[in-house]
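Q: Hi! First time doing this. I have a protein sequence and I read that you can turn it into a structure. Is that right? Here it is:
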Amino acid sequence: MKRCIRNTKISQLIFFRKNLLNCRAQQSRFTKAASVPSNAQLASYKVAYRVAQCKKPHIIAEELILPAAIDMVSTIIDDATASKLKAVPLSNNTITRCIYDMSKDIEEQLNDKIRDNLFSLQMDKATDSNKDCLLITYVRFTDADDLREDLLFCKLVTRRATADKLFNIIDTYLKEADLKWDDCVGICTDGAQAMAGRRGGLQALIKRVSPNVQWTQCMIHREALVSKQMSSELNDVMTYIIATVNYIKTRPVKA
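A: Yes, that's right. Below is the predicted 3D structure, encoded as structure tokens:
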């Protein structure tokens, strides 16, 4: 009986050792297959940057850009050089990951410039094609004696866009980015009650955490309000000008 138990333990030990060796071999093969040359990885990021700039579907890199690049290189140079392009990872998930990495890096660089520096914020609500409410926030700050303005963030607003919810979105982002309300010297919003209310609006909530902040109304919204009360003669002129500008912008070749 003891000999039978001993033989069983030895068989189990041999079995587990054999499987351990197989797992290590498979892991080394996977690691080798997953390794990508540094220049191929850099090329992947550059292609992802182009795809993001053109606002094209991410799958276009694998379905169109890579085959077209291989065809051009094989025609102009040779097939051996063209085969090297196959090492460039351009799958849908890879392009998505590259765009995300670049966007996070740009965001971190922007936050580093704003951190411990005076800045002002401009907020506005917008609705996209899916009828989702978005809070768009721009930041203005000084960078090497130059006044710069950039997009800080764009967040989805679920349900009602109340002043408390808008403030929580901004406050949460500033805390995650390690930005201080004390460095905020100005805010700019439209004249809506949720934004500009002195008692319960976003303006009042921000002044509670940053008492010295100065509020201004967005000039674009002022122009929109003024345009509603224009005379008929001026309204006809503005309508003609807007139609002309839109025609030129949609047909740049005819400009």
